[in-house]
UniProtKB/TrEMBL annotation:
Domain Helitron helicase-like: 414-632
Region (Disordered) residue spans: 296-330
Source superkingdom: Eukaryota
Classification via Pfam families: DUF6570, Helitron_like_N
Name this polypeptide is given: ATP-dependent DNA helicase
Occurrences of domain DUF6570 (ranges): 159-290
Length: 1234
C-alpha cells in the first residue's frame, strides 16, 4: 500500500487532477477509476525512506587524481568563462549591472513603461540660467541602457514598480562632459563639502611611475560658498611628494593628475550652478581660479631622491614578487589609494601632515587604511552629504543616500547599489569607496559604543580604562617592541591586557576590525573541534592585472573578449583604476575553486578527494590585492596518528596507496624537467611567433574523445598542458631570498622594506631552500613521509590548480609529518591573524588616553568619557588594519571575508556548566559567575531568560537528546500566531539572538532585579511576576516544532524548532577554551564533558551523590561519534604542545624538519573572544601562575584555620522568631523596590 506522497506522484504521472487538500482515500479511488491512455507512463519509481540503512562512506585515502577527472574539471571550468557565462550589462529600469542571460530588450515592455512615470525623480539638463528647471515627463529610465532585467520585466507586466529601481528615488542622471573630464586635483576644487585632505606620493623608477594616495579624514567637514578655494586653502589639504632617481620634469608632471586646467574647472562649476541644487547660490571666483598655474601642481612639490633598484613602496613586495618596478611607462599614472586615516590633524602644520603621510608610506608599519573623523554629526541623516562631496557622481544632486522612499533600504544596501551601477562611475572614483566605508565604520562604532554603556559589566570596564597605569602600559610597550614575550603577572599588567578584550564590545560589528578576526579564529577552532584536524592547507592569489576576466570587469566593454592584446601599462591602469573589479574577480575565482576544484555542489569529487568541509579566509597582500588561505577536510580522513600507525603496519597496503594519492595531489617539481631546463625551454618558446604569456590567457579546453583512448589531438593538448604549467610556475612560484640588513645589524641604504631573511633566526621566513628528496621515503620509526621533491626554490603545488588559476599557489598536505600538529596550529592561527603587533595595539590605547587627558579632566559624565575613549581606540585600530581599496570594495559589495562549508551557532557553554555545578557545590554559589540572560517584558512583568532554560525545559519528545546535539539541531522560535494562546497579549520586547558572539545578553542576578522598574510598577503583582505560562498544544504546531514544558518563561509564545540532520550547525564555543583531558582538574573536565554528552534537566541527574565526576565519566557509555568529538576537543592542545617542541627545534636547527612553509607572525594576542581561563600545566606540573595561586590559597587556609573558621558552627536558626508581623502589609515585589 503506497503512502500519500508516492500515490500523488503516481496520479500526476497519469494526468489525474488532484485538489490541494485531497484525502488519501480519494486519491486511491481516482487511481482505481482511471483508464490509461497513450500519454500515461507505463512505469514510475517511488521511494520510501528506510531507517538504519548503512550508506557506504568515502574511502581513505581517496583514489589518486586521474587524467579523466582532470579533463572533466578543466572542461567544466572553461565553460564558466565563456562569454555567455560572464558577460553583464545594465538594466534601464533599475540601473544595475545584470548577467547578460537575465536581460531582454526593453522594447519588449514598451506597453508597460507608463508605470514608471513618477514625478519629482528626474531633472533635465540646463545649459543657460534663463531655462526653467524641468523634469523628464516620461518614464524614469536610464536611457543609455537598452535592456531590462527579468525582475524588472516581471514587475512591470504586473503593473508594479520594482522595490529597488530608479523610479524609487535612485535616479542619478548622466555625467556631463564638463564633469567627466576633471582630474583628481580639479575635483578637489569643485567640492562643495570637503571631508578629506590628501597626500600624493609619485614614485618614479628607472622605467615606470605610480602614484600612491593617502586621504586624511578631516576632523570637521569644510563647506564652501565660494569656489574654487584660494590656493592657500588647497595647500592645507593636499601634499605632493615625488621620489625617483632624478627630479621631475614638466613631462613627468603632465603624466600625473596634479595639473589644473582652469577652463575645465570653470566649466564644471558653471554647469553645477545651473543643474545641482546645492550649487545654486554658489559664487564662482575667477580671481581665485586665475591664481592656479597650469604648468605646475597647485601646491609645492617635495622631491626625495631615490637610488634603489625600483619604485616599490614599503611592505609592498610579496615573497614571490621579484619585479623591482610597478606602474606604467607611458600615459596617465595610475593611482593606488591606501586609505583614509583617522589621525587628528587640526593642530598639525602642513609640513607635519606631509611628514606623517611619508612616514606611514616609508616606515616598517603597514599602509594607512580607512579610519574616522572626530565629528560624525554631519554623516547622520544628511541626504545632501554625498551629492555635495561627489558632485561629479551625483551631477543633478539626486539619488543620494536617504533621498529615496524605499522601505527597509539601508545605507549599506544603497552603497552596494551604487557600486553596481551600470556605468561604473562609482567603481572608478578614487575616494568614493573609502568615504562610504569610513562612514559605515563610524556608525557601527558609534552604535556599539552607546550599546556598551548599557552592559551590566560596563562599570568594571570603565574602572579598568580610567584606572590604567600609564607607567605600566609604557613598560609593556617597550618590552614588546624589543621582542620580549610579555605574560601579565601583576594586577596592573592584567588590567592593561584586559582592555584589549574590552574593545571587543565596540569592535564586534565593525568590518575589518581586530575583533572580526577573533570571530573567524574562534569559528575555525570550533570547526576543528567538530571535525578534527584538517587534511590540506591551500593558498592562492588570483592575478588581477593579468587575468582577462578582471580586465573585463574593470573595463566598459559589454562584450567579453578573453584574448585581449592590451599593453602592460594599460592593464595595470585599468585594474588599479577600478578596485571593484578586483573584489568581484576574486569572489568569482574563489567560488569557481570551491565548485570545481573542491567538487562542492558538483557531480564529481574534488581534486583532493570528496570534500567534507572547508574554511578559507581573505587576506590582503602588500600591494593590496586579495588572496585566500583555506583549510580543507577530506571525507573519512584519518588523524595524523592513525595515518602514522597505518603507514607502519607491515600487513597493509596503506603506505602504497597514501603515497600514490599524495604524489598525484601535489608536487614540488616541474612537469617537463628541472628549473634550468624549463627556463631554457621557456626562453626559446617565448621568442617564437605566436607565443602568448599564459598569465594573460584562459586555460584551453581538452579535446573531446571519440572513444576511451587518447587521440593525437589529446596527446598534443596534454603536452601543451604540462609546458604551460611549467611556464606559469617559472613566472610565479620561484622564490628568491632577500635581506636588507647589513653585517652591522642596520638596514642597508635605500632599502625601506624587510626581506625574508630579516628575522631573529636569520633563516628564510618562507623556509627556502627546501630540502630535496630523490624519491618518496618513509621513516620507519616515525611514519613520516618525505615526499619526492627535486626543486628547492618552489613550494609544493597542484598542477591542475596552477593551470586553472594561472597564479601563484601553495598546496600543503597536513596528513603526515613530524611537526604536522605544529603546522596545524600555525596555519589555523595564521589564516585568521590580524596585521597588528601587540605593541601597536597598546600604543594605540596609550595614545588615545594621552591625547584625551583634557577631556578626562572635564565635566563629561564617567559613562560618556569611557564611551568616547573606547570608540576612538577601536577607530584607530581599524585604521591600522591595512585595508586597501579592493578589500574595502569587497565589504561594500557584501562579499564574504571568509568562505566556509558550515554554519555556526554560538554556544555559551559555561552557562550550562555553571547550571550543573550549582546543584553540587552550594558553598561556591556566591563565587559562581553570573549567568548570561536577556531581560524581557511580558504580561506587564519582567523576566530573565537564559539559553539554559531552552534546554532544561525542552519537550519530552527530546528527553534523550544531549546538550551537544541540542545546540546543533534546536532553536527557539516564535510560534505561529494561530498556535499561540490567548494569554499572550504583548509581543516580546526583545528576542534573543543565538548567533550573537558577544554580550547581546546582559548579566543578571537575583539582586539585579531590584534595580529594574516596570512602566506599570503600581500594577505589577507578585503572582504576575512569578506566574508560569501555559505551554502550547503540540497538535497546533508544524511537524518540526515542539512546545516547551511547563516552567519555561516563554512557553505560551515560543516553541523549539528542530532541524534535520542535514541542517546541523557547528557549535561555536564562546566563553573560553574547553578544559584539557590530560592536564588541570580532572573532575572539572569530566563534569563539562558529561554536561555536553549526557542528557539532563538538572545537575542532579548527571551523577549520583556518592560518585565522583571522574568515575561517572568512566562508567558512561559514549556513542562512537561522541568519542570522536572528545578526541577532536584535544586537537588544539596537541597542536599547541607540538608548536612549542617545533619552535625549540627551529631555534637550534637540529634534526630534520618538514619542508612546510610556516609563516612567522605576531598578531597581537592568541586569545579567544571571551576570557581564556586557566594557566595550563607544564609537563604535568603546575605552571608558575598556578603555583602562586596555590601558595596564596594555602596561606589563606592557614589564616582561616587559625581564626577558627573551620570549627563546627552553632545552629543559629533557633534564634529566628517563629512569626514576624511587619507594620505595613506589602507584596514581595513592593518590598524589593522599597
Amino acid at each position: 500500500m503506497l503512502k500519500k506522497v508516492p500515490l500523488q506522484m503516481l496520479a500526476r504521472s497519469h494526468k489525474i487532477k488532484l485538489a490541494h487538500n485531497v484525502a488519501l482515500g480519494q486519491i486511491e479511488a481516482l487511481c482505481h477509476s482511471h483508464i490509461c491512455t497513450d500519454s500515461c507512463k507505463s512505469l514510475i519509481s517511488t521511494f520510501e525512506p528506510l531507517d538504519n540503512v548503512q550508506i557506504q562512506s568515502a574511502t581513505f585515502p581517496p583514489k589518486p587524481l586521474g587524467d579523466n577527472l582532470i579533463e572533466r574539471i578543466i572542461k567544466d571550468w572553461t565553460q564558466e568563462f565563456l562569454p555567455g557565462s560572464v558577460e553583464e550589462a545594465g538594466c534601464g529600469v533599475c540601473g544595475q549591472l545584470k548577467h547578460a542571460s537575465e536581460l531582454t530588450p526593453i522594447k519588449s515592455v514598451n506597453g508597460f513603461l507608463h508605470v514608471l512615470s513618477v514625478p519629482g525623480i528626474t531633472r533635465l539638463e540646463r545649459r543657460t540660467a534663463s531655462e526653467r528647471i524641468k523634469e523628464d515627463d516620461g518614464p524614469v529610465l536610464d536611457k543609455v541602457c537598452s535592456k531590462v532585467c527579468v525582475e524588472c520585466r516581471r514587475s512591470l507586466i504586473q503593473g508594479k514598480i520594482l522595490r529597488i529601481s530608479l523610479a524609487r528615488g535612485l535616479w542619478l542622471g548622466d555625467i556631463p562632459p564638463e564633469l567627466q573630464q576633471l582630474n583628481f586635483v580639479e575635483r578637489l576644487l569643485i567640492q562643495k563639502i570637503r571631508t578629506n585632505c590628501c597626500f600624493v606620493k609619485v614614485s618614479s623608477g628607472m622605467r615606470k611611475m605610480i602614484s600612491h594616495v593617502i586621504a586624511f579624514d578631516s576632523p570637521v567637514a569644510k563647506v564652501y560658498d565660494t569656489l574654487p578655494p584660494p590656493p592657500e586653502d588647497l595647500d592645507e589639504v593636499l601634499a605632493i611628494m615625488f621620489t625617483g632617481p632624478c627630479k621631475p620634469t614638466e613631462k613627468d608632471f603632465q603624466r600625473t593628475p596634479m595639473l589644473i586646467r582652469r577652463k575645465y574647472v570653470y566649466d564644471a562649476l558653471t554647469w553645477l550652478k545651473l543643474n545641482h541644487p546645492a550649487y545654486q547660490e554658489l559664487n564662482i571666483s575667477t580671481a581665485n581660479l586665475n591664481k592656479y598655474s597650469e604648468k605646475t601642481p597647485p601646491v609645492s612639490v617635495e622631491y626625495k631622491p631615490s637610488t634603489s633598484e625600483g619604485n616599490r613602496v614599503p611592505e609592498g613586495t610579496s615573497v614571490h614578487d621579484n619585479e623591482p618596478e610597478i606602474g606604467t611607462e607611458d600615459g596617465e599614472v595610475p593611482f593606488v589609494v591606501h586609505g583614509i586615516t583617522g589621525e587628528r590633524l587640526q593642530n598639525e602644520t602642513v609640513e607635519s601632515q606631509k611628514a606623517k603621510a611619508l612616514a606611514h608610506l616609508n616606515s616598517q608599519g603597514k599602509f594607512l587604511a580607512v579610519g574616522h573623523s572626530k565629528d560624525s554629526s554631519t554623516i547622520f541623516k544628511n541626504p545632501e552629504l554625498y551629492p555635495s562631496i561627489f558632485p561629479w557622481l551625483f551631477p543633478y544632486g539626486l539619488g543620494g543616500l536617504g533621498m529615496n522612499d524605499i522601505p527597509r533600504f539601508s545605507e549599506k544596501a544603497h552603497k552596494k547599489f551604487l557600486l553596481n551601477y551600470h556605468d561604473k562611475r562609482f567603481q572608478t572614483d578614487i575616494t568614493f569607496p573609502f568615504v562610504a566605508f569610513s562612514h559605515e565604520q563610524i556608525k557601527a562604532t558609534t552604535h556599539n559604543g552607546f550599546a556598551m554603556t548599557e552592559l551590566q559589566s560596563f562599570p568594571v570596564i570603565a574602572d579598568r580604562i580610567l584606572g590604567v597605569d600609564h607607567t605600566v602600559l609604557t613598560n609593556i610597550i617597550n618590552r614588546l617592541e624589543q621582542g620580549e614575550i610579555v605574560h601579565p603577572e601583576t594586577e596592573a599588567e592584567k588590567t592593561c591586557f584586559s582592555i584589549i578584550q574590552d574593545l571587543d564590545h565596540v569592535g564586534g560589528g565593525v568590518k575589518g576590525s581586530m575583533t572580526s578576526k577573533k570571530y573567524l579564529r574562534n569559528e575555525l577552532w570550533s570547526l576543528i573541534s567538530y571535525l578534527g584536524a584538517p587534511s590540506w592547507y591551500i593558498t592562492f592569489a588570483p592575478s588581477d592585472t593579468t587575468h582577462p576576466l578582471c580586465l573585463y570587469y574593470a573595463g566598459s566593454n559589454e562584450k567579453f573578449e578573453p584574448y585581449l592584446n592590451i599593453p602592460d601599462d594599460e592593464r595595470t591602469r585599468q585594474v588599479i583604476r577600478n578596485p571593484v573589479s578586483g573584489a568581484k574577480f576574486f569572489d568569482f575565482m574563489v567560488r569557481m575553486f570551491i565548485k570545481h576544484i573542491l567538487g562542492v555542489d558538483s557531480d564529481h569529487d574534488g581534486v583532493f578527494g570528496k570534500t567534507s568541509a572547508y574554511y578559507g579566509t581573505v587576506e590582503q597582500q602588500g600591494r593590496l590585492t586579495l588572496h585566500l588561505h583555506l583549510l580543507l577536510w577530506i571525507a573519512s580522513a584519518k588523524s595524523p596518528q592513525e595515518i602514522r600507525d597505518a603507514i607502519l603496519d607491515p600487513n597493509s597496503d596503506f603506505q602504497k596507496r597514501i603515497v600514490e594519492y599524495l604524489e598525484k595531489a601535489h608536487t614540488g617539481n616541474f612537469m617537463t624537467g628541472n628549473q634550468e631546463q624549463v627556463e631554457e625551454q621557456l626562453k626559446f618558446r617565448s621568442q617564437s611567433e605566436g607565443y602568448t604569456n599564459p598569465l594573460y590567457t584562459l586555460p584551453s579546453q581538452p579535446p573531446q574523445h571519440l572513444n576511451s583512448e587518447r587521440c593525437l589531438a589529446s596527446d598534443l593538448w596534454w603536452s601543451n598542458y604540462k609546458e604551460e604549467i611549467d611556464d606559469i610556475v617559472s613566472r610565479t612560484h620561484i622564490h628568491t631570498c632577500k635581506s636588507t640588513i647589513g653585517k652591522d645589524g642596520k638596514r642597508k641604504k635605500n632599502k625601506d622594506y624587510y626581506g625574508c631573511l630579516d628575522n631573529k633566526y636569520g633563516t628564510c621566513n618562507a623556509r627556502f631552500p627546501h630540502q630535496t628528496v630523490e624519491r618518496t621515503q618513509v621513516d620507519q620509526e616515525t611514519g613520516y613521509l618525505r615526499m619526492q621533491k627535486s626543486e628547492p626554490w618552489i613550494n609544493t603545488y597542484n598542477p591542475m590548480l596552477t593551470y586553472l588559476l594561472r597564479c601563484n599557489s601553495d598546496v600543503t598536505s597536513l596528513l603526515s609529518g613530524t611537526a604536522i600538529k605544529a603546522v596545524v596550529f600555525y596555519v589555523s592561527n595564521y589564516i585568521t591573524k590580524w596585521s597588528l603587533n601587540t605593541h601597536v595595539i597598546f600604543d594605540v590605547i596609550k595614545s588615545v588616553l594621552v591625547r584625551n587627558s583634557e577631556m578626562l579632566g572635564g565635566n563629561l559624565s564617567r559613562q560618556e568619557k569611557v564611551r568616547k575613549l573606547v570608540t576612538q581606540m577601536v577607530n584607530l585600530l581599524s585604521v591600522k588594519m591595512e585595508l586597501g581599496a579592493p578589500m574595502i570594495c569587497m565589504y561594500l559589495l557584501d562579499n564574504p571575508d571568509h568562505y566556509t562549508s558550515h554554519k555556526f551557532k554560538a554556544f555559551y557553554w559555561k552557562n550550562f556548566v555553571n547550571e550543573v555545578q550549582k546543584h553540587w557545590d552550594q558553598s561556591e554559589n556566591e563565587s559562581t559567575p553570573k549567568q548570561k540572560v536577556i531581560i524581557l517584558k511580558k504580561h506587564n512583568g519582567v523576566i530573565a531568560l537564559s539559553q539554559v532554560y531552552d534546554y532544561i525545559y525542552r519537550p519530552s519528545h527530546l528527553e534523550d537528546m544531549c546538550l551537544y546535539d541540542w545546540i546543533q539541531l534546536c532553536e527557539r522560535v516564535k510560534a505561529p500566531k494561530k498556535s499561540q494562546t490567548k494569554l499572550t497579549t504583548e509581543p516580546v520586547a526583545e528576542q534573543y539572538d543565538a548567533n550573537e558572539l558577544f554580550e547581546a545578553e546582559t548579566t543578571l542576578s537575583d539582586s539585579d532585579l531590584d534595580d529594574i522598574e516596570s512602566d506599570t510598577e503600581a500594577e505589577l503583582q507578585e503572582n504576575e511576576y512569578l506566574q508560569c505560562p501555559k505551554p502550547l498544544e503540540r497538535a497546533d504546531l508544524p511537524k518540526n516544532m515542539f512546545p516547551f514544558l511547563a516552567g519555561h518563561p516563554l512557553a505560551d509564545s515560543h516553541v523549539l524548532k528542530v532541524a534535520s540532520e542535514r541542517q546541523r550547525l557547528v557549535p561555536n564555543f564562546i566563553g573560553g577554551v574547553l578544559p584539557r583531558a590530560d592536564c588541570g582538574s580532572r573532575e572539572y573536565y569530566c563534569c563539562v564533558m558529561l554536561t555536553f554528552f549526557k542528557p539532563w534537566r538538572s545537575g542532579e541527574s548527571l551523577k549520583d551523590m556518592d560518585q565522583s565526576w571522574d568515575s561517572t565519566f568512566e562508567n558512561f557509555e559514549f556513542f562512537p561519534r561522541q568519542k570522536e568529538v572528545l578526541k577532536n576537543f584535544q586537537v588544539r592542545y596537541e597542536c599547541l604542545d607540538a608548536r612549542d617542541d617545533y619552535n625549540a627545534q627551529r631555534k637550534t636547527m637540529s634534526g630534520d624538519t618538514d619542508n612546510i612553509h610556516i609563516p612567522e607572525y605576531d598578531d597581537g594576542l592568541d586569545c579567544d573572544i571571551l576570557d581564556v581561563s586557566a594557566d595550563p600545566l607544564i609537563n604535568g606540573e603546575s605552571g608558575p601562575l598556578e603555583k602562586r595561586r596555590q601558595e596564596h590559597m594555602n596561606e589563606m587556609k592557614d589564616m582561616l584555620t587559625g581564626m577558627g573558621w573551620n570549627e563546627t558552627l552553632h545552629d543559629r536558626r533557633l534564634h529566628i522568631p517563629a512569626e514576624f508581623n511587619p507594620e505595613t502589609d506589602r507584596s514581595a515585589h513592593s518590598w524589593r523596590f522599597k
